[in-house]
């Protein structure tokens, strides 16, 4: 069973990389423009996370030694099936002096999550690079309906040092390798 799962993941990653060759780059913090003048907005939000109660509390700064999560939030996703986002290759850089994502490589799935009904593959190299690949054939949806806004993914981490409110916007950043696309119509969403 493990070999089958590895083969499925390898096939999925190969497909995502192939789709990535047809996509243009997305820049961190920028608006991603679609083929029909639509704009998809991305932003990072930070929360303290209580493992026991599984609750999130939004924070404006981080304290050393506390468990947090970073969420990549999207809004203005087109809700028409022909226009909606159906996949993303999200490449992130994070400050290793401030962030410790405990699981790397094959164990990254223990630190990176999504509540969306999508296929997700993630890899944390432990050196400040986190890649998250999301794919669905019907669009990003909840309860069978394409959603306009939501959370692409969240990653849990421990703060290695205190991070001030002014430093928080640079804690996690999308790199220029990131792409977001519409697989249904083969249209690209790009910057």
Give a brief description.
The protein is mostly beta strands. The protein contains 1 helix and 15 strands, in the order αβββββββββββββββ. Strands 1, 2, 3, 4, 6, 7 and 12 form a 7-stranded antiparallel β-sheet that branches. Strands 5, 8, 9, 13, 14 and 15 form a 6-stranded antiparallel β-sheet that branches.
Tally of helical runs: 1
Low-pLDDT ranges: 18-36, 183-191
Can you write the helix and strand succession as a string? HEEEEEEEEEEEEEEE
So what's the overall shape? Answer: globular
Compute the gyration radius: what is it? 16 Å
- Strand tally: 15
What share of the residues does DSSP label as strand, in percent?
Answer: 35-45%
Biggest sheet layout: 7 strands, antiparallel
How many angstroms does the end-to-end distance come to? Answer: 40 Å
Helix content: 10-25%
Rounded mean pLDDT score? 79
SS content category: mainly beta
């Amino acid at each position: 069973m493990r070999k089958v799962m590895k083969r499925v993941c390898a096939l999925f990653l190969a497909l995502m990389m192939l789709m990535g060759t047809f996509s243009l780059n997305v820049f961190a913090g920028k608006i991603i423009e679609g083929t029909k003048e639509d704009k998809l907005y991305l932003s990072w939000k930070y929360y303290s996370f209580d493992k026991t109660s599984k609750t999130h509390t939004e924070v404006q700064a981080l304290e050393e030694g506390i468990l947090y999560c970073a969420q990549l939030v999207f809004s203005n996703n087109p809700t028409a099936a022909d226009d909606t986002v159906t996949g993303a290759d999200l490449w992130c850089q994070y400050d290793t002096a401030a962030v410790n994502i405990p699981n790397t490589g094959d164990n990254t799935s223990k630190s990176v999550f999504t509540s969306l009904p999508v296929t997700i593959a993630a890899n944390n190299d432990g050196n400040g690079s986190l890649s998250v690949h999301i794919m669905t054939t019907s669009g990003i949806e909840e309860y069978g309906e394409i959603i306009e806004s939501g959370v692409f993914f969240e990653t849990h981490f421990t703060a290695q040092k205190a991070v001030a409110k002014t430093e928080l916007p640079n804690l996690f950043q999308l790199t220029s390798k990131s792409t977001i696309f519409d697989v249904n119509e083969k249209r690209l969403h790009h910057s």
